[in-house]
Amino acid sequence: MSTPSHVPVLLDRVVALLAPALDREGAVFLDATLGLGGHTEAVLRRCEPARAIGVDRDPEALARARERLAPFGDRFTGVHAVYDEIPEVLHDQGLDGVDAVLFDLGVSSMQLDVTERGFAYREDAPLDMRMDGTAGTTAADVLNTYPEAELARVLREYGEEKFARRIAGAIVRERAREPFTTSARLVELLYAEIPAPARRTGGHPAKRTFQALRMEVNDELAVLRRALPAAIGALRTGGRVVVESYHSLEDRLVKQTFAAATRSEVPPDMPVVPAGMEPALRLVTRGAEQATPAEIEENPRAASVRLRAVERVRGVAS
Ligand SMILES: C[S@@+](CC[C@H](N)C(=O)[O-])C[C@H]1O[C@@H](n2cnc3c(N)ncnc32)[C@H](O)[C@@H]1O
Q1: Dihedral Cα 149, 211, 287, 255, nearest 10 deg
Q2: Contact between 21 and 117 (Cβ < 8 Å)
Q3: Which of 81, 100, 266, 272 is deepest in the core (most CB within 10 A)?
């Protein structure tokens, strides 16, 4: 794996999509995945009248972003929260709606860089993988306590791992000898269980299992499923939601949520949509946008990105 890049993915495109919603006095931008604050910094530079609220469940990311964004003074507010708490975050800030929301999903380069967080498989580290290291189940807990069938499901669904059942069986056998604590033993097991021909073509044998454990530990899909409607519901007229996904299940969820929100309730055989019955949102992107080969070359994380955006065209935030 190449060194994780700190360059925000599709930065210019994301700012271009958010800017039309933020170019007015008092506009509010909610960055649901603040990370190191790269996207937020660019938005605050580009959209002078706007202020930003940055949410991250990782206290370490939040601390770093606060430092980076300090020059913007009270135009930036950092909040420690999980992004399905958007309604509570806005309520606490005394806001009844926002003009733009960004989700740049997954882990940050900083989280991958810090070995002890346990996200990377290249070095032996505690099997943690919690984005908020102060609460919840760790990757070791999942490996040591989940029933075999449940482990196999996690690896198959979230990791798209072809050898999920075989790996789950091996994990259950191994943990009976001694519980898992650090990553090296798991990586060794994966090398042993994934047949050599698959190892030659399928990327690093630990990649899919580590991704699956991370998604399970942080309950990523369930949180996203709750957060997208909350973000859409919080949008003021003219407001936009932009999402960058890196996993097919995430992108499918975004696609389906946006499709439902932009569909008219009027029967398809009706010649014209009566006034007032148009959908409240419209798609801003056509299909999912991807990074160019040049950007992927510069920033390998961009290789799997899928970008989608919607805009509220009528109705106000509830
Ligand atoms: C890919 S990084 C964002 C990088 C950021 N756009 C930048 O420019 O620096 C994703 C961030 O979202 C945070 N995150 C992931 N899931 C979250 C959730 N459910 N709630 C809040 N923050 C979350 C992670 O902790 C991580 O810092």
Answers
A1: 50
A2: no
A3: 100
pLDDT tens, position by position, 204-241:
899 999 999 999 999 999 999 999 999 999 999 999 99
pTM: 0.93
82 CB within 6 A, ligand 1: yes
Would you state the pLDDT for residue 316? Answer: 54
d(CA 37, CA 21): 19
Please tell me the residue having the least CA distance from ligand 1 atom 14: 33
What pLDDT digit, counting tens, does each position of 170-198 carry?
999 999 999 999 999 999 999 999 998 88
Choose the residue to mutate in 11, 29, 39, 57 for probing ligand 1, maximizing ligand atoms within 8 Å of C-beta.
57
Both tokens assigned to 160: 């798209």
Length of the chain: 318
Indicate whether residue 133 lines ligand 1 (CB < 6 A): no
How far is residue 61's CA from residue 130's CA, in Å, rounded to a whole number? Answer: 13
**E-strand spans in the chain?**
28-31, 51-56, 76-80, 98-104, 235-245, 281-283, 306-312
End-to-end CA distance of the chain: 45
Query: Strand 28-31 relative to strand 281-283: parallel, antiparallel, unpaired?
Result: unpaired
Cα–Cα distance, 216 to 234 (Å, whole number): 27
pLDDT, one tens digit per residue, over 38-89 is 999 999 999 999 999 999 999 999 999 999 999 999 999 999 999 999 999 9
- pLDDT at residue 214, rounded to an integer: 96
